[in-house]
Amino acid sequence: MPTPQTQLLTINGGSSSIKFTLYNVGASLTATLSGKLTGLGLQTARLRINNLQTDEQSITEVEAADYSQAISLLMVWFRQNLDIGAVKAIGHRIVHGGHRYKKPQWVDPALINELLSMTAMDPQHLPGEIQLIEAFAQQFPKLQQMVCFDTEFHQHLPAVARLLPIPRRYHDAGIYRYGFHGLSYQYLMQMLHALQGNQIQHQKIVLAHLGNGASMTAVINQQSIDTTMAMTPAAGIMMGSRSGDLDPGLFGLLNRTEGMSAEQFDQMIHHQSGLAGVSEYSSDMQQLLAKRANDSNVADAIDSFCYQARKQIGAYAAALGGLDSVVFSGGIGENLPEIRSQICQQLAFLGIHLDDALNRQNALKISKADSPIAVWVIPTDEELIIAQSMCDLLNLHYQKEGHNES
Question: Mind telling me the catalytic residues?
Answer without folding.
Answer: 150
